[in-house]
Amino acid sequence: MKNKEPLILAVVVFFTLVTYYLVEPYAHHVMHKHVESEHFEYKDLAEFTPTTNVANGKELVMSNCTACHSINVANMPAPMDAVTSAATYGVNPPDLSNAGVVYDAKYLAAFIADPAKAANVSHKFNDTKMHPMPAYNWMQPSEISDIVAYLQSIAVKAEELTPALAFENACGRCHAMGYEKWTQLGTKPTFKHKKDELAYDIKVIEYEDSIKAYMGKLPPDLSMYIRSRNEHFISTLVENPQNHLAGTAMPRTGVSAETMEKVIEHMKDAGDTKRHEREEVGMKVMIYIIIFAIFALLWKKQVWRDLH
Amino acid sequence: MENNSRRGFMGIAFGAVAGIGAVGSLYAMKKSWDPLPSVKAAGFTTLDMTIYNENELVVEKWRGKPIFVLKKTADMVAKQDDDMKARDIVVDGSHYMVCIGLCTHLGCIPAYNADNEGFVCACHGGEFDYAGFVRKSPPGRGFDIPPFTIKGTTLVLGEAGPEFTDMKANAVTL
Amino acid sequence: MAHFEKATSIHDWLNQRLAVDAVNRVMMTEYWIPKNINFLWAMGMVLVITFAMLLVSGIFLLMYYQPNVDTAFYSVNYTIMREVDFGWLWRHVHGVAASVVFLIIYIHMFTGIYYGSYKKGREMIWISGMLLFVAFSAEAFSGYMLPWGQMSYWAGMVITNLFAGGSLHADGLVEWIRGDYVPAQAFLTRFFMLHVLLIPLAIMGLIGLHFAALRIPHVNNQDGDEIDFDVEAKKYLDGDKAGSKVMRFANDFMSKDMMVVGFYLVFFFYLVFYHYGFAMDPVNFDPADGLKTPAHIYPEWYFLWSYEILRPFPFDVGLIAFAFAQVIFTLLPFLDKSPNSVPANRRGPFAIWFWVMIVNLIVLTAMGKLPPEGIFNYIGFVSAVLFIVQWLALPFITKLEKKV
Hints:
The complex is a heterotrimer.
Chain A: H1 5-31, H2 54-64, H3 82-89, H4 99-102, H5 105-113, H6 115-118, H7 141-154, H8 163-170, E1 182-183, E2 186-187, H9 194-215, H10 225-228, H11 231-239, H12 241-244, H13 257-271, H14 275-304
Antiparallel strand pairs in A: 1-2
Chain B: H1 8-33, H2 37-41, E1 45-48, E2 58-62, E3 65-71, H3 74-79, H4 82-86, E4 89-91, E5 94-100, E6 111-113, E7 118-120, E8 127-129, E9 134-136, E10 148-151, E11 154-157, H5 162-169
Antiparallel strand pairs in B: 1-11, 2-3, 3-5, 4-5, 6-7, 7-8, 8-9, 10-11
Chain C: H1 10-18, H2 20-29, E1 32-34, H3 43-62, H4 72-83, H5 87-115, H6 123-145, H7 150-161, H8 171-178, H9 185-215, H10 229-237, E2 246-248, H11 249-274, H12 304-310, H13 315-328, H14 332-335, H15 349-369, H16 374-399
Antiparallel strand pairs in C: 1-2
C-alpha cells in the first residue's frame, strides 16, 4: 500500500495557500491603492541653505512669532490659553520649543515662507478665508534660515527626542490619543474631585469643536491606528496626506524621516503595547512546541513499531 | 493478553513534555487573574495636609475604604500620654490622627463627636478617643493605621514610610 | 440495592460503582480503528484541541470583557491587550483559533465527502457534523460582534438585515432579532449570551452526538472497505498486531493523532505570535460608528463563499440561493444516489464533481472578498450558478455510477 500522505499534504497545503493568497494579499492589494514613499525628501520644496546666525534668528522670532506662539524653553508663555486660541484662529499655534528637531529644516523654511503652500492645504484657503498664520515670504531667505537655526539651537538633540514628544509636537494638537491619556490640551491629569475633571473635559470638547469647525471634521483619536491602518500607510499619509486622501484638510506636517519613525514608535506604544513581550514569549513557545512535536513523533514511532 | 498498547518510556516522556506545557499555561492563567496595574496604581492616595481644620473630622478614601483625618488642637496634643503619642502623625508641624475609619470590632463606620473629642460606633456602642485608642469595648484594638509616608506637606497612603514602619514594629498598628 | 463487595483497591472500588474498566475498553483500548487511514483522519482530534483552546482563552477573555456598547472596545483593546498579564496572548489565541478552526472544519468535511464517510450507516455522523458547522458558524458570528468595532457593527447590520427577507420586508422581525432599530446595546448583550452560554452548550451536546454517531458504524478507511471488526480485533488481541487490519484507539491511533496535533500546534502558534493579521481584520480596530460605513465590508474568510452566492443575483433570488447553499450540504447523503462507498478517485464522474466543487468554492471565496466590480462580478456570478448546478446535477451523476 503506497503511502499517499505526502501527496495528500501537498494538495491540502496548496489549496490553503491559494485561498490565503487570494483572500489576503491579493484582495487587499485590489482594495487599497499603493503609495510609494518619497523618503521625506520634500522634493517639491525650494532648496534650503542653512545659516548659523542664531542670535539674529532669535531676534526675528521674538519680534515676529511670539505674538501667537509660546516658546516654553525660552520662558515665552502663550499669549492666550489653548481653548481661546483655537476659537480665535481655528487651531492652537504650537509651542516652538522643539520645532527645530521635529520638523525637516527645508520644510520649516518653506512653511515659514508660505504656510498653506508648504502644508499642501492651499485648496482650503482664498482671499476671504486665509491661513491663520501669515506668509513670511517678504523676509530674506537668509533671515528665514536664521530663524530655523535658532529653533534648532533651542530644541532637544535628535537622540533626546522621545517618541511621545515627537507625537505630541507633530500630531497632538489635532489628534487625541486616549489610550495614552493624551488630549489636544495635553496629558489629562488625575483629578481628586469629579467637578474638576468635568471642567477639564468641557475645555477639551470646546477645543475639539473649534478644530472640527476649522478642519471640517474632528481629526480621529489615534490610539489604535497602528492596527487599523498599517505602518506604511501612516508613514506615506503623514509624508503627504493628499496622496491618500485627495482634498483633505490634514496638513502635510513636514516631519523629518527620523521624527516619523519616532511617531510610529509612539503609535505602537499606544496600539501594540505588548509587542516586545509577544516576541519574547513567542520565541519560547515556538521552541517548546517544536520539542513537543518531536516527542509526539517519537512516541508515535515507538507505539507503531509493532503495528506495521 | 495485553491490556494496553505498550506505552513505553516514550509515552511517559511525551506526557512529561505535555505536562510542562500545561504548567506554563497555568502560570499564564494565574498571571491573568492578578489585579491590574491600574488597580494597583489606584492603591495610592495623596492627601494635601494643608486643607484640614482643627478638630474637624474629614473622611477621605483609600483602596475603597474610609480614612479618618483629624487635625488635633494644641490642647489635644498636650493631653496625650505616651501610648497616644505613639499613634501621632506629624506633618509640617501639625499633629494628626490618620487611620482607617472602620470599627475594629465588626467594621461599621463610627461617628465623631467634636465636643466629646471621641468616636462612637452605632452598631454595638464601641468608643475610640481622638488618637484612635479604644475608650469603650467591644472593639479590641485601636483604629488600624494605613501604610503612609510623609512627603513635604502631603501624606501618601499606600506607601510605607519610616514612621509607619516604626509603628508596625512597635505593634502600634497591624 | 445491587450487590456490592468489599473493594480490594481504589481501582476496584471505582469499578464496582462506575465500571471504569468497561468504559476504558469501549471508548479507548478496544475501540477498534482501521489501520488503513492517513493523517486527514486526525482532523477530528485537531478540532477537539482547537475547541479546547477557544474555551480556555475564552474564559480568560470573559473575565475582563465588558458587553456594553460604550466600554466593549476599550475592554478588549486597552484592558485585555495592554493591562491584563498575557491578555494579549489569550486574545491572539482566541482570534487565530476562531479562524483556523474553520480551515480544519473544511478539511475534515471534504475528507468525509471524498472518502464517502457520509454513506451506508454514517448519515448521522454527517448530519451531526453539519449541525456542528452551523453551530460553529453562529458562534463565530456572535463572537465577532463582541469587540464592537466597525466590522462588528456593520456585519451585524448587514447579516440581520437579511432576515427582512428581501421583498417580504419583514422589518419587524429584524428589529425583534436586534432588540432595537439598529445594532445597539440589546443586540450586543444578547449575542454575548449566545456566544458565551447557549451556543457553546449546543456545540458540546452536538460533539457528544457526533461521537456517539461514530461509535457503532466505526471510523471509515482509505479504501472504503467493509471491515469485520470482530475478526480483526480477535487477531490483534491474539498477538498478531501487525497482521490485523485494526488498531486500538488508545494508544495506537491516539499516538498518531498526537503527532499530527504536534505539527499542527507548531503551525498554529507561529500564526498566533507572528502572523495573525488575517484573523484580526484592521477594519475592526476602528470603534463602531453607526453613522459611517467602512469603504470595504466583508465577512471573515470562511463565510465568503456563501456570501458570494448571495451577491450576484437580484436580492430575492440571492436570498433563495443563499438559503439553498446553507442547507444543501446537509442533504448530501440523500442526494448521492450511488451505491458505491469508495474514495472519489474510484467513482469516475464523482471525482470530477468533487474537485470542481473545491476549486469553485475557492473561487467563490476569493470573489466574496474582492470588490463587486468588473470582471470579479462576472466570475462571481458564473461561480454561484455553477455551485447550484453542481448540486442539482449530483443525484443524476451519482445515479449513473457503475457499481465498483
